[in-house]
Specification:
Elements (H helix, E strand, L loop, with lengths): L21 E3 H7 L5 H9 L6 E3 L2 E5 H11 L6
Antiparallel strand pairs: 1-3, 2-3
């Protein structure tokens, strides 16, 4: 339904999200650098990450993932 094909997360610092529109929370956790699903729930509860309910599933739109990355990314001073 939402595509179960495996997609690699780029390691080159690219913050773009693969082409599907909606992602379940376990995949969002992986896209956000392998954080826990519990942390994703915390970001949603605090309003820092938007999500949608579709039936019993909670999903995050790819644009909301990209926006979250932009607002939470930090640049290390070298």
């Amino acid at each position: 339904m939402f595509g179960n094909d495996e997609q690699e997360i780029p390691e080159n610092g690219d913050t773009s999200v693969p082409s599907r529109l909606l992602y379940p929370l376990p995949e969002v956790a992986e896209l956000l650098g392998g954080i826990t699903e519990r942390q994703v729930h915390r970001y949603i509860a605090r309003g820092e990450l938007k999500s949608r309910k579709l039936g019993r599933r909670r999903l995050v739109h790819r644009d909301d993932i990209q926006e979250f990355i932009k607002t939470h990314a930090t640049v290390d001073a070298a």
